[in-house]
Amino acid sequence: MVNKKFQVWLPLLLSIVMVIGMFLGYQLKSEGSKDFFQSDKPTSLQEALQIIKMKYVDAVNIDSLQHLAIEQIMSDLDPHSVYLPPAELKQANEDLQGKYAGIGIEFTMYNDTVQVVYAIPGSPGDKAGVQPGDIVLKANDSTLSGKKLTTDDIRKIVRGQKDSKVNLLLLRNGNEQTITVTRGNIPVPSVDVSFMMNATTAYLKINKFSETTYEEFMYAMENLKKQGMQNLILDLRHNGGGLLEESVDVADEFLGGDKLIVYTEGANSKKREYKAKRPGILESGKVVVLVDELTASASEVLCGALQDWCRATIIGRRTFGKGLVMEQFPLRDGAAIRLTTARYYTPVGRFIQRSYDKGKKVYMDELWNRYSNGSLLAADSDKVVRGKAFLTVCKDTVYEGEGIIPNIFVPLDTTIYSSTLNKLFASSTFNKIAFTYYFNHKAAIDKSTSINDFLKTVDVAPLYQSLLNTGEAPKNITEHIANRIKLQLKAQIAKYHWGNAGYYQTLTQDDQYIEDAMKVIEK
Question: Does pTM surpass 0.70?
Answer without folding.
Answer: yes
